Predict the 3D structure of the following.
Amino acid sequence: MRKTIILKNDRFQKLPIIRLEFPYDFELKEIVKGFPECKWYLKERVWAVPYTPTQVSELLQYFKEKNIWLDYSRIQKVDLPEKHPELPQLDAHLHSEIRRFKDWLRNRRYSEATIKSYSEAVALFFRFLDNKPPGSITNEDLEIFNRDYIIRRKYSVSYQTKESPYLILEERVLDPEIIKRPKKAKSLPNVLSKQEVKDILQALSNLKHRFMLVLLYSCGLRRSEILNLQVEHIQYDRGMILVKNGKGKKDRVVRFPEILHDLYREYLKAYQPKKYLIEGRGGGQYSAKSLAAVLTAAVEKAGIKKPVTPHWLRHSYATHLHEGGTDIRYIQELLGHQSSKTTEIYTHVSNREIREIRSPIEDMDIKI
């Protein structure tokens, strides 16, 4: 007998979702988890995906390959708030093009967030062109879209060439570089002082929360990296942590400071994580939203009036390393940067050399 999943409409935080209901079955649960954008809603205790006009079709295609039956008789069409109502709706044949584009991106290991961003940009591009067939798109179309829609509506710089991957997919001779992108603003990273970091890390009494923030700072991890860390990635005896599939799908190793070992053992004994090093209450991967909330609570308790995010701790880690005399090449390796130019930005916020520079006023015989 084929396994069956019942689809139902629902809402979560005012946003429409599709519930995937089925009797507990570990194998089926693992298959459901593999569907892009599908996640576990702990409060509702159900697996669900965001509602989109094409979501049922994508679910059918995915589960058909797994020989799983979907009952979608309870699904009703939901009127979503219209984005860019001044543009025509996307034609049905272009919806299938967008699905093909998503599959192409997934095959190249793009993150789901990037896939969503790129596919929405390409859909907007098609709508702006009044559903023009992809094979007829020209460089002039790109220029007009950039000038008359993106720039006039003051969209971000990065939005201007998000349709480029689709042009690569089509193996077109179009040249997205003919659109002169304005230079992206180069802002310096936000950095906390060592005392501020110390205050934040000592602000929480909850063992899991404290361990999570200490690990985030002391190893310079990205938010996604600490959430994806598995117990088996901690090489305790070697004093190393294996970071799998970091940004750019690269693996790297970072030092697991000895000062954390006792805290780590205490944490393991108390929480006994099964797969992921940091797990939610019901098991499974800890959420990015929960991590951000923990940090916000710590910052408030420490009395720091700054909009600190998890990435601030990574920036602070890198800057404090440089101020402590660590060579920029080693910092590059620890952070997993492909280019040293990315890492060199921390030299601009480090005060190691700045403190050695004397102001001209210090050489003047003057009373202040």
Remarks:
- Residues 357-362 have pLDDT under 50 and may be disordered.
- The CA atoms of residues 332 and 341 lie 9 Å apart.
